Amino acid sequence: MQVEISYLPEERWREFRDLRLESLQLDSEAFNSDFDEEKDFTEEVWKKRSRDCLFAFVDDNPIGMVVFLPNNRVKKSHVANIYAMYVKNEFRGNHIGLMLLTEALRNLKRNDKIIKVNLSVNAKQTAAYRLYERIGFKNIGKYSKNAFINGEYHDEILMEYFFE
């Protein structure tokens, strides 16, 4: 299986929307966002959001994604954030998440101001947590009962990564 990591052309925004909404439906515990909150976003919102996202493609079809954003606030311009990591179920276990995260960090490192990357992960998402640790993210604490999903409270683990 040949996997390509790259950006999605803006005119293909519907593919981003479909993948994002799939992630929110099939893996809702992994995200702080909710399907019902995002399903009615406008075309312009989807186009704008897709610009900050890297995709994993197989046969030119997006099968995974990760959002990474430098902080645009003056006092936080040295910090970036990782969000919305997702790989379709049938492609998990093939190191696609590792490829996406590695490329996102490579892109962020090109910005000389950025020294640190933050992310958070649902404590029940053990595979994602292990991936982040493997890449070099460190657990720096947690928010207890930080999300209420499907009638249950979930803890959120806070992690950070420093460029050397």
Tell me the total number of β-strands: 7
Q: By helix and strand content, what is the structural category?
A: alpha+beta
Reported CATH architecture: 3-Layer(aba) Sandwich
State the separation between the terminal residues, measured CA to CA.
33 Å
- Fourth-level CATH superfamily: Gcn5-related N-acetyltransferase (GNAT)
Q: Quick check: average pLDDT?
A: 94
Oligomerization state of this entry?
single chain
What's the short version?
By secondary structure, the chain is α+β, with helices and mostly antiparallel strands. The chain contains five helices and seven strands.
Describe the structure.
By secondary structure, the protein is α+β, with helices and mostly antiparallel strands. The protein has a single domain, classed as Aminopeptidase (3-Layer(aba) Sandwich), CATH 3.40.630.30. 30% of the residues lie in helices and 35% in strands. The protein has helices at residues 13-26, 35-38, 43-50, 96-109, 126-135; strands at residues 4-6, 53-58, 61-70, 79-87, 116-122, 138-149, 152-162. Strands 1-2-3-4-5-7-6 form a 7-stranded mixed β-sheet, with helices on both faces. Strand 6 and strand 7 (152-162) form a beta hairpin. Helix 1 packs across helix 3 (43-50) and helix 4 packs across helix 5. The longest helix has 14 residues, at 13-26. The N and C termini lie far apart (33 Å).
Please supply descriptive tags for the structure shown above.
164 residues, alpha+beta, Aminopeptidase, seven-stranded mixed β-sheet, globular
Question: Topology of this protein?
Answer:
Elements: E1 4-6, H1 13-26, H2 35-38, H3 43-50, E2 53-58, E3 61-70, E4 79-87, H4 96-109, E5 116-122, H5 126-135, E6 138-149, E7 152-162
Helix pairs in contact: 1-3, 4-5
